[in-house]
């Protein structure tokens, strides 16, 4: 039988440690070689690691939040050779979210990862129904359960850097923030951005607007509305706009690309890398939120035997958030100053606010 790649041998070694015995083996093309020690019983049986991922609004292809989660699963499939299944919502209802999570659990998917805080209510219910399944949820720590892991981020830190970059780049001294839904999670982005801008350039004016307000969560999938808000900001003199609104951010990019001298700041992923050619050069930077790292590390932890619930926080120190420098020509003049701000956050000199 042909040897497996080196990564597979490393993964097997990690699993052997987790099971407190030496395990060896090889799989077929239809059966990934990475396995986890089966819980319970007197033996040390093996079970195939079969991950389930439930996307938030927009699903894979949003070039933002969901794509970041998808990248984490893709990496786990490649490097850890897990089997992965994805579900996308057909409608935005609590019943649909519950049904999709239950579907993954009934298939024997474990762990099951819910992408986005909107899954919280459904996950609380389904996790109680399947106590032997490990669940994880991105962006929510509103409840605790022995089999639920909350993956949360220091969005205010990355947004502080984005604010500094925006203020330093602005010619007018006016920058803007557009949030998807007016709620505490998105207000962390707003608070960090406004504080970072004010510190980098005292006197800078920050315009703020949101696409929707709870119970309307449609602001994450309304690029037309984001475009209209962005156009209004640009007409008022704002020349750098940071949008934290999932797929709605595409609307801001459109508006900014049509305005000469204006800049957009992306969110979640490095959007300069994925944006269409027509808007790409208008992206100054992106506040990178490493949902991909969180998803990958949670799968990795499960493989190594970690089944406990709790909260895992991803910040600058853990490479959980940051800012992108892909648009080298645009960022280079600011990078030294923004990196200095980053160091001040890391050493505790600066603590970005989490509320506006």
TrEMBL record:
Which keywords does UniProt give here?
A: Cell membrane, Lipoprotein, Membrane, Signal
**Per its UniProt record, what Pfam families does this chain match?**
Bmp (PF02608)
Q: What is its main location?
A: membrane
The subcellular location is: Cell membrane
Its membrane topology, per UniProt? Lipid-anchor
| Segment forming the signal sequence | 1-24
Query: Which Gene3D superfamilies does the record cross-reference, listed alphabetically?
Result: 3.40.50.2300
Q: Which family does it belong to?
A: Belongs to the BMP lipoprotein family.
Q: What is this protein called?
A: BMP family ABC transporter substrate-binding protein
Q: Which organism is it from?
A: Planomonospora parontospora
| Encoding gene, per UniProt annotation | bmpA
